[in-house]
Amino acid sequence: MAPYFETVKSFADVTVTDAGVDTLEFLQAADGVVALFDVLGSTAFTAVQSDIKGNIAKVRARYDAVPAQSATLEQLVESEKGEKKRPATEGLMWLLRGLSFTCKALQNAQANTSEELSVAFSKSYDASLKKFHNFVVKGIFAVAMKACPYRADFYAKLASDPAGGPPVPADKLNEELSKWLAALDSIVKRVEAFYEKGGHNKGF
């Protein structure tokens, strides 16, 4: 095992063309977010992690069923349009919301270096997922926010090499993380705008 950003696909390496966002590359990068919650190390985030994992599986199942029509996320959603049930469209919608929450939280952490992760994640939750959740789920997230690891511990884990190699220097880690987040933010906004324009988020 190498340090975190050397073991996952960066969103900065996901191909985005006029046709849309490459489905397989996006799913590989999204798998990296699942691994990120392992780095956070709190069992309180299990619900978030399993939700993201489940939605990745729904999108991947659609891709596996009709790969020729699912090369990009946009094509995949269009191919499901008109069907009675649209599990991949709904799954991707929720996946984007989960990724947006994670992205905003870490962008907050990057922008405010004196802020603890619990504050960064709480602000992100209020700005992203909270409006979609009922009382029970809000309670689960409130517990998760409080259980965030200390900022210094989290960044040290991101930089460390589990195999015992030297840790990644702080400036390189921040550069990689900022690049990863900027690309993720851009992809989420692009696909969310596509959903809005096409009315793909209706009916859920």
TrEMBL record:
Keyword line: Transport
Limits of the Glycolipid transfer protein domain: 21-159
Annotated SUPFAM superfamilies: Glycolipid transfer protein, GLTP
GO MF term (any one): ceramide 1-phosphate binding
Cellular component annotations (GO), alphabetically ordered: cytosol; membrane
Keyword Protein biosynthesis: no
InterPro entries: GLTP_sf, Glycolipid_transfer_prot_dom
Protein name: Glycolipid transfer protein domain-containing protein
